[in-house]
Specification:
About 40% of the residues lie in helices and about 20% in strands. It is of the alpha+beta class. The chain has a single domain (about 5-120), classed as Aspartate Aminotransferase, domain 1. It has a five-stranded antiparallel sheet. A hairpin with a 5-residue loop joins β2 and β3 (about 55-60). α2 crosses α4. It is globular, with a radius of gyration of 14 Å. About 25% of the residues are buried.
């Protein structure tokens, strides 16, 4: 199969823990940002605001999944992310560990508000 064109295709190519984790992230995105549209950006699942701005992204890797927000969203949750490996806007979620549903839900909601109220665009 070539590069996935939809999030359904992306998830279908995954198996086991990577698939489960991405499905959990997708369910949280639908819950927190029900008006967001799904798209593949740079080969990975992304959720876009109705304005067209990317709200957050996710990607599966060999030993972990990444959920990527804006750096300002990630920084706002630094105290909560002390036990996670983070990057500029990313949070690494190792497979085999509980998904921090509540934390991701709060980060997604923060990112939606950040865009809608402060006009923060994608990186």
């Amino acid at each position: 199969m070539g590069r996935p064109q939809t999030i359904d295709e992306y998830v279908e190519e995954l198996a086991g823990q990577s698939r489960e984790l991405l499905e959990q992230v997708r369910a949280l995105a639908h819950e927190v940002a029900p008006g967001a549209t799904e798209a593949i950006k740079w080969g990975a699942p992304a959720w876009l605001h109705s304005s067209g701005t990317i709200l957050f992204m996710a990607s599966a890797h060999a030993k972990h999944a990444n959920v990527v927000f804006t750096p300002s969203t990630r920084e706002a949750f630094d105290p909560d992310l002390a036990t996670f490996t983070t990057g500029k806007g990313s949070v690494k979620l190792p497979y085999g560990q509980p998904v921090p549903d509540d934390l991701l839900r709060r980060m997604m909601a923060f990112r939606v508000r950040e865009h809608e109220q402060e006009g923060v665009l994608w990186m």
